[in-house]
Amino acid sequence: MKTSFTLALAAAVLLAAGTAFAQGSAVIIKQRAKELRDQNNVEQGVPSPAPPVQSAAPGAAPAAAAPARPLTPQQQNLARLLGDLIAIKPEAPATPAMKQRLAKDLIAAAESPNKPSQIAANKLAESLSSALSEKLLAAATSRRLLQDINAVLNPQKIAQPQLTDITADIQAIFQANNLDRKQAVAVASDAKALAVEIQKAAAK
């Protein structure tokens, strides 16, 4: 009797473990499918979920016959930030000074009084530098990354579900560029952590 009960209990435990494993596998499969979809969106030029930024990027074509206007402070911040991102290449990995400048410009590009902490900015600058040192991004993809980063730095302008989509787009940008998934996830995670920190500071 006791043996039968023990066998029944063991069978129940195994069944529960098998069900949990199957559910876990289903979640992983669903996540990977979403990542593949996001990568395809990047490759096919589907617009980023982040709000567009006013053109201030180096090399951006000016509007035809439009008079030259001075750049706003935010446009200048974004132009510097894009310059930081473009300067990091596989053949010219980021130096400590470049990472420091990138972190400084990340903080400057946050328009709200609630700026990211130096620690959060340094962490994102480090993961971005590491990723960009591995694989070169095309110019258009660099501008898309800038658009996403701008949204992350200014999360008060977007809804929470949109923030999740934007950080997923950051991951997809790097994965579509054949970067190791672990590194791409690290960049997206650091970007999301920075945005959450800004949101929490604003809520106080």
Give the number of DSSP strands.
Answer: 0
What is the beta-strand fraction?
under 5%
Topology pattern, helix = H, strand = E: HHHHHHH
**How does the helix and strand content classify structurally?**
mainly alpha
Descriptive terms for the model:
204 residues, 7 helices, globular
General description of the model:
The chain is mostly helical and 204 residues long. The protein has a domain at 73-203. 70% of the residues lie in helices and 0% in strands. It has seven helices and no strands. The protein has helices spanning 2-43, 73-87, 96-108, 118-134, 139-153, 160-176, 181-203. The radius of gyration is 22 Å and the shape is globular.
Topology:
Blueprint: H1 2-43, H2 73-87, H3 96-108, H4 118-134, H5 139-153, H6 160-176, H7 181-203
Helix pairs in contact: 1-6, 2-3, 2-5, 3-4, 4-7, 5-6, 6-7
Q: How would you concisely characterize the structure shown here?
A:
This protein is mainly alpha-helical. The chain has helices at 2-43, 73-87, 96-108, 118-134, 139-153, 160-176, 181-203.
